[in-house]
Design brief:
181 residues; mainly beta; 11-stranded antiparallel beta sheet; 11 strands; 10% helix; globular
């Protein structure tokens, strides 16, 4: 009886995996580099925890130290083309070894939207422009919260090169809304 149940469960899993990858765009892997500015061209619903650690070089004016960032990215797919974004937020822990004192506080928050203007599921091609606004609501102790924020137009695209490989690329601008940024 256990063997029959196991075989049925395995068959259901195999069929489910096949239906999950109904088109070539579903097989693409989201980018992991530059998580704040590089956005997947597909419309996804996800929550992604981000931890960043940066060691400050001893030759820098602070004579070393580190910076740690803890953040949560949120994306909500309104439909298969439109998504709402919250891609930058979090808590910054700044620990220089000299000159400045240790500080911690909240980072600015970026919110926006993206829309796939061209989407070919069968051939695995997608072109998506988007726009984010970085709200200057972070704390100045961690070098955030200055000026009137940024407007960040971007463009990302993806192409399924084969069943096992794809190319995803993005470009964009960070346009400050005043001279303080």
């Amino acid at each position: 009886m256990k063997k029959v149940l196991f075989m049925m469960a395995a068959l259901i899993c195999l069929l489910k995996v096949q239906s999950a990858f109904a088109d070539r765009l579903d097989q693409m892997i989201s980018p992991v580099s530059n998580p704040v500015n590089f956005d997947d061209p597909r419309s996804n619903t996800e929550a992604r925890f981000i931890y960043m650690y940066h060691e400050i070089d001893n030759d820098f004016i602070t004579e070393g130290g580190d910076i740690r960032v803890y953040a949560l990215q949120l994306r909500y797919a309104v439909d298969d083309r439109l998504a709402l974004l919250a891609t930058k937020d979090g808590y910054v822990d700044f620990n220089p070894d000299a000159v400045l004192q240790d500080e911690s506080g909240f980072a600015n928050v970026s919110v926006g939207a993206k829309y796939a203007v061209y989407k070919d599921d069968e051939n695995g091609i997608i072109l998506t422009p988007g726009l984010r606004y970085e709200i200057p609501m972070g704390e100045s102790e961690v070098f955030q919260g200055k000026g009137d924020g940024f407007i960040q137009p971007f463009f990302s695209s993806g192409v399924a090169l084969s069943d096992r490989s794809n190319f995803i690329g993005a470009t964009g601008l960070r346009l400050p809304l005043d001279n303080a940024d």
